[in-house]
Amino acid sequence: MTDRIEILRGVPLFADLDERSLQAVAVLAREERHPAGDVLMLEGEPGDAFCVVVDGTVRIERGGRTIRSIGAGGFLGEIALVERRPRSATATAVTDVTALVLHQHEFDRLLQAMPAVHRRVRAAIDRRERGETT
After folding, report:
1. CB 75: neighbour CB atoms within 10 A?
2. Do residues 55 and 72 lie in contact, with contact meaning Cβ atoms separated by under 8 Å?
3. Roughly what angle, to the nearest 10 degrees, separates helices 19-28 and 104-113?
4. Under 8 Å CB-to-CB from 18, ≥6 apart: which residues?
5. How much is the pLDDT for 14?
6. DSSP state, 131?
7. Which of 3.10.20.600, 2.60.120.10, 3.40.50.1000, 3.30.710.10 would CATH assign to domain 2-129?
8. SS (H, E, C) 64-109
């Protein structure tokens, strides 16, 4: 649990949460490991999870074209969950990847309980929808 809290503390999305809030997120998140080449999310498929990359690199592609890479501390999957629509891109592990994963129900609870996180997620969605890579 302590490792998850430290990981989450290093993610800009969660960086300024208090200890109790970080613990709540850590309890909700599940650790997943994906080998290089594994597809984490597929464009057009229903979204059911939000991922925070703990270690490794994930390539994000839309329409078969690479639009960005995400490394440790980055997150993905939020657009489909918040907007309740199919995945907007495909995410593939470039290297072995460790991620903390929140499924739809847990993600919804997180956003409801933590308005500051909800605002940051919304801002990230807006940037990504405009085509910005950060």
Report:
1. 21
2. yes
3. 170
4. none
5. 82
6. T
7. 2.60.120.10
8. CEEEEEECCCCEECHHHHHHCCCCCCEEEECCCEEEEEEEHHHHHH
pLDDT at 62: 95
User: Each residue of 69-123: pLDDT tens digit?
Assistant: 999 988 899 889 988 999 999 999 999 999 999 999 998 988 888 888 888 888 8
The Cβ of residue 53 has, within 10 Å, a number of other Cβ atoms equal to 25
- Sequence-distant (6+) residues with CB within 8 A of 122 are 82
| Domain boundaries, given as residue ranges, for the chain | 2-129
The secondary structure element, H or E, covering residue 40 is: strand 39-41
Element (H, E) at 39: strand 39-41
Quote the mean pLDDT of the chain: 89
Cβ(94)–Cβ(34) below 8 Å: no
Q: Quick one: pLDDT band at residue 21, thresholds 50, 70, 90? A: confident
- The pLDDT-based confidence of 134 (bands split at 50, 70, 90) is very low
